[in-house]
Amino acid sequence: MPVAGQGRRAVSANRIVSSESEELILVDKDDRETGTLSKALCHDGDGILHRAFSVFLFDRHGALLLQQRSGDKRLWPLYWSNSCCSHPRKGESMNEATGRRLLQELNIRAELEYVYKFSYQARYKDLGSEHELCSVYLGRSDDDVRANESEIQAIRYLEPAELERELAERPEHFTPWFRMEWQELCDKYADQLEKYVNVGDS
Questions:
Q1: Rounded to an integer, what distance in angstroms lies between the CA atom of residue 89 and that of residue 24?
Q2: What pTM was computed for the model?
Q3: Is 132 one of the annotated active-site residues of the chain?
Q4: Which of 11, 63, 165, 200 has the smallest number of CB atoms closer than 10 Å to its CB?
Q5: What pLDDT score does 5 carry?
Q6: What gap in Å lies between CA 12 and CA 86, rounded to an integer?
């Protein structure tokens, strides 16, 4: 399994690491590349399908690392979401992208396990949309997280039972892709998920 972030340097805890001008990878429904386009244009209107990833990181006790998105985000600012999510850039592999982003957002490295990919489309008010073909990864890390303040407002760890309660009581506090991914992991990939959740206190 690839180790995301291996061989890369840590970055400043408040460094700007993304921009609306970066080139994202456009794909069709079968994940075949069809070109590139700026991040801004990919998210305008109803969005244009592009490649993305979501990472779910657990600590040794089986608690999931959640992040609250920065208030400066164009889409879903201050919503809670999974540990890390972003896009590979033009010419970048998924392994390179996940490693880069874990370091840029959280200043950690982790061994990741690919689980599945899915496409979704979600609109945020009149400010734009996510329209992504998203690869979902699981991993574990006990590294000390140092959140990048330009990307992340806050972080916390939640046990799965606590997360389920919050999702049931306050679903509007979480990003739509996170809600979809967590439900899919629980429903269809429970065997893989349990390797990270049912780890005890050792």
A1: 5
A2: 0.90
A3: yes
A4: 200
A5: 43
A6: 18
Tell me which residue of 66, 147, 63 sits closest to 102, measured CA to CA.
147
What is residue 19's predicted lDDT score, i.e. its pLDDT? 73
As a dihedral over the C-alpha atoms of residue 183, residue 195, residue 147, residue 24, rounded to 10 degrees, the angle is -60
State the DSSP code for 173.
G
CB 55 within 8 A of CB 83: yes
Per-residue confidence (pLDDT) for residue 12, from 0 to 100: 45
Task: Kindly report the number of other CB atoms within 10 A of residue 52's CB atom.
Answer: 26
What SS3 class is residue 59? Answer: coil
- Three-class secondary structure of residue 197 per DSSP: helix
Going from the first residue of the chain to its last (202 residues), give the mean pLDDT of each consecutive group of 10, the final group possibly shorter.
42 63 96 97 98 97 97 96 96 96 95 98 97 98 93 96 97 98 98 86 44
Identify the active-site residue in 42, 105, 130, 132: 132
Cα separation, 196 vs 198, whole angstroms: 6
186 tagged catalytic: no
Across-strand partners of 119?
133
Phi, psi at residue 192, to the nearest 5°? Answer: -70, -40
- For residue 24, give the H/E element and its range: strand 23-27
Spot the catalytic one: 42, 84, 85, 134.
Answer: 85
Residue type, 180: M
Please tell me what DSSP assigns to residue 172.
G
Q: In angstroms, rounded to a whole number, what is the distance separating the alpha carbons of residues 178 and 158?
A: 14
